[in-house]
């Protein structure tokens, strides 16, 4: 899922979190807020962090956001023939499952027909999957209540345990397939429905760990939203409202420095070294937030002056997803030899592990701005198709998929971690005093929503630790406690 959407509950998140700003007047009076904060990365995590830090520390702090590329990070909107493209909820869509030989399942325009088809082939597995995912989401949503009351966590494990107890930690240590088989789901249903969803959302099979798998399945539910003109607009909005300064530069080194304070003790601060079009430079900061993954191929930031030393790269790798946009006419005979192109209106084709061509999914795209009366064209007409694959498509693969092509655009993304079970313990959110890291949450699940939640958590951590309010960090039994207070 290289571009993830926000649930309607997440859209309320930024407003709800402002409620949690109460209760710190006495703490704030004891110490001045930081003068300068640096955020490295202007994706959804970095821009969310800028927004929340502004809310927590007030108008006097200077917030700088460093970004070497485009605002939005891994969120992207592409233009083909002058048209901005994105998946749109307003246009009815139809899904099909393809195993490399035939369509195993195809949605109808009628809900009752889809229900009966699913019931006939998979029994009540689909209904039970919905209930299983909803049960996990219900516990996951507790984090909004915790953050509304300004509680934060120093590690991913502590955060997950507060939300779902041992159950959530167990989900990190078994595959999605193992978890679903243990809950009585059929192997056929896992192979033909769950696997395609996992492949389209994370580019990986059901052997990824079960927590990420459950988030993947939640992404297949209804009630998700896309943002007009592309999800990256959320980042621009957060950056604007944070009143942060965007610095177009590549950060190369973060150095820990000390200086004597008025009390005589040494005070720590950070020297952020960066390279821009104007050349090399550095700035000094009281707090630094790393909102970019510290992994091979994604970051070349080094650290100096730390004891023990901080690694420039953490263990683990990110999974490559190649997005290929093709303006052309689909070769319907590849997926269904019996169907006429003029009668084929399927918009999303998901694939099983048996698909031999090497693609995870194939979807038709609509313009961001939908004009009145617009309807998705049949496969007999030229339109824009999006293909997810683990490797770049060859000319032979493209000839197999399309009878004609007018334009091809390829984007390679290290979009999300390569998940496994048991999952390795992710790094902490706190790398050093007043040096924080957003990306550990991705090793539980990568999504716009989890990045925003991580940003809120780190902003709260930064505030609590700055004002030495440890009572709001790593508290157990929060759900029962807050339920008793309400």
From TrEMBL:
The keyword NADP does not apply. GO terms for cellular component: lysosome. Residues 105-475 form the Prenylcysteine lyase domain. Gene3D superfamilies: FAD/NAD(P)-binding domain. GO terms for biological process: prenylated protein catabolic process; prenylcysteine catabolic process. It catalyses: S-(2E,6E)-farnesyl-L-cysteine + O2 + H2O = (2E,6E)-farnesal + L-cysteine + H2O2; [(2E,6E,10E)-geranylgeranyl]-L-cysteine + O2 + H2O = (2E,6E,10E)-geranylgeranial + L-cysteine + H2O2; an S-polyprenyl-L-cysteine + O2 + H2O = a polyprenal + L-cysteine + H2O2. Prenylcysteine oxidase that cleaves the thioether bond of prenyl-L-cysteines, such as farnesylcysteine and geranylgeranylcysteine. Only active against free prenylcysteines and not prenylcysteine residues within prenylated proteins or peptides. Involved in the final step in the degradation of prenylated proteins, by degrading prenylcysteines after the protein has been degraded. Belongs to the prenylcysteine oxidase family. This is Prenylcysteine oxidase 1. It comes from Bagarius yarrelli (Goonch).
């Amino acid at each position: 899922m290289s571009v993830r959407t926000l649930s309607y509950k997440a859209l309320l998140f930024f407003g709800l979190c402002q409620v949690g700003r109460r209760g710190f007047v006495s703490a704030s009076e004891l110490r001045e807020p930081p003068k300068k904060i640096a955020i490295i990365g202007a994706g959804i995590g970095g821009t969310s962090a800028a927004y929340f830090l502004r809310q927590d520390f007030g108008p006097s702090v200077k917030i700088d956001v460093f970004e070497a590329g485009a605002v939005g990070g891994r969120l992207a909107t592409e233009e083909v023939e002058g048209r901005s493209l994105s998946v749109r909820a307003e246009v009815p869509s139809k899904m099909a499952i393809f195993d490399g030989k035939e369509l195993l399942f195809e949605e109808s325009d009628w809900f009752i027909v889809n229900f009966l088809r699913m019931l006939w082939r998979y029994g009540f597995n689909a209904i039970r999957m919905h209930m299983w995912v909803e049960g996990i989401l219900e516990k996951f949503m507790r984090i909004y209540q915790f953050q509304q009351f300004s509680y934060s966590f120093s590690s991913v494990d502590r955060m997950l345990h507060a939300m779902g107890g041992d159950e959530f930690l167990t989900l990190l240590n078994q595959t999605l397939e193992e978890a679903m088989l243990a809950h009585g789901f059929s192997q056929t249903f896992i192979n033909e429905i769950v696997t395609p969803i996992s492949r389209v959302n994370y580019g990986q099979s059901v052997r990824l760990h079960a927590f990420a798998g459950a988030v993947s399945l939640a992404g297949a539910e209804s009630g998700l939203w896309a943002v007009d003109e592309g999800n990256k607009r959320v980042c621009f909005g957060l950056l604007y409202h944070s009143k942060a300064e965007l610095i177009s530069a590549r950060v190369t080194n973060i150095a820990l420095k000390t200086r004597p304070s008025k009390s005589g003790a040494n005070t720590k601060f950070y020297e952020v070294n960066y390279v821009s079009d104007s050349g090399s430079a550095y700035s000094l900061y009281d707090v630094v937030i790393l909102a970019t993954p510290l992994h091979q191929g994604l970051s070349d930031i080094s650290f100096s002056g730390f004891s023990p030393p901080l690694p420039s790269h953490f263990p683990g790798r990110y999974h490559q997803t190649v997005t290929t946009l093709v303006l052309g006419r689909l070769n319907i005979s590849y997926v269904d030899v019996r169907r006429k192109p003029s009668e084929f209106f399927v918009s999303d084709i998901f694939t099983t592990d048996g698909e031999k061509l090497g693609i995870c999914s194939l979807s038709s795209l609509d313009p961001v701005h939908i004009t009145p009366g617009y309807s998705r064209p049949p496969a007999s007409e030229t339109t824009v198709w999006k293909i997810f694959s683990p490797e770049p498509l060859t000319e032979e693969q493209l000839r197999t998929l399309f009878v004609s092509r007018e334009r091809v655009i390829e984007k390679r993304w290290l979009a999300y971690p390569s998940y496994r079970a048991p999952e390795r313990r992710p790094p902490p959110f706190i790398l050093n005093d007043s040096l924080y890291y957003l990306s550990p949450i991705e090793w539980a699940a990568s999504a716009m929503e989890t990045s925003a939640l991580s940003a809120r958590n780190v902003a709260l951590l930064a505030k609590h630790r700055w004002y030495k309010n440890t009572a709001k960090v790593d508290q157990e039994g929060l759900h029962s406690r807050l339920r008793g207070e309400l």
